[in-house]
Write a structure and sequence with these properties.
There is one protein chain. The chain is built from 11 helices and 9 strands. The chain is α/β, with parallel strands linked by helices. The protein folds into 2 domains: 95 residues, Winged helix-like DNA-binding domain superfamily/Winged helix DNA-binding domain (Arc Repressor Mutant, subunit A); 198 residues, D-Maltodextrin-Binding Protein, domain 2. The strands form 2 sheets. Strands 1, 2, 3, 4, 7, 8 and 9 form a 7-stranded mixed beta sheet that branches. The protein has a two-stranded parallel sheet with strand order 5-6. Helix 2 packs across helix 4 and helix 2 crosses helix 5. It is globular, with a radius of gyration of 24 Å. The termini are far apart.
Length: 299
Amino acid sequence: MIFVASVNLCTDMDWENLRFFLAVAREGSFSAAARTLKVDHATVGRRISALEADLGVRLIERLPRSCPLTASGARVRDSVLEMESHAYSVERISLAERTSAYKEVVISAPPVLSFNLLTPLLRDFKRLHPQIRLSLSSQEKPVSLSRLDADLALRLFRPTEPDYVVKKLGELRFSLYATTDYPYRDAPESWQFITYDKTEKDFAHRRYLNSLTQGRQIACSVTDLTTQYAAACSGVGVASLPCFLGDRDSRLQRLAENGEPYKLDIWLVLHRDLRNIAEIRQTITFVTKAIRGAIGEQV
C-alpha cells in the first residue's frame, strides 16, 4: 500500500517544481533563486510550497535572510542533483549526435579575457567560420559545462571536474603599471595601489595584491581586473595588470618591482561528451592559436 501511494504521489507531482527547489538549494534564498530563474520571489515561494505539499514533507526552513534545507530537503536535493546530471547527460549525447544542427558555440570567460582577448577576435573568427555563431559569456563566476551553461570555458585556474577535458594555453603574466606621468614612478614607498573591494571572494590575484600592499597606501578598490585596468589608465594609482594589456597601452608604463613576477595559467575547458563536435573543435583551434599569439607577444 505504501508503494502504491508513493507511485500515485509521484505521478501527480509537478516535476517542474523540482527545478525551483534546486535553484533555492543552490542559491540559499528565494530572492537569489528568483534572480537566477528570472521570475519573481512569489513564484519561487509558490512552487516550493506546492512541492512540499505534494511530497508531504518540509524541505526548506524559511528564515529572514536565508533558506537552509531541512534534513529531508538535503536528501531530496541529492536525488534531484542525480536526476539533473542524467538529464544533461542525455542532452549532451543528443547534441553530439546531431552535429549538423550545431550552429552556435558558447564560450564562457572571465571579463579580462572576454573583453580584451576574445572580443577583438570576433571579426576574424566570423571570416574564417561564417557557419558558426560565436557567443561570449563574460563572468567571473565559473559556469557549469555539465549543465550546458557553455560549450567551452577559459579559466585562470585548473578545473578538477572528472568529466572535463582541459588544455593549458599558456601563462598570463602580470606586472605593475601606472600612467606615464605618474609622479612617484621612482619612489615605490609612495606608490598608491588599486585593489579589489571587500565584496570579492578570496582568489589568487587578490592574495597577491594583499601581499604587495601590506602597510602601503590604497588609492581605490574596485570589483574586477578590467576595472583596475581602467582605473590605472585614469592615473589614480598603481595596478597589477596582465602584460598583454599594460604593454600595448601607450598611456601606461611598467614599474620596476622586486621579487618574482606574478602569473596565472590560462586553461581551455570543455566537457568530454562534446569534444568531437566539428564546430567546437574548429573553435578550439582558433581560440588556442589566437590567445597563444596574444600572450606570446609579452616581453
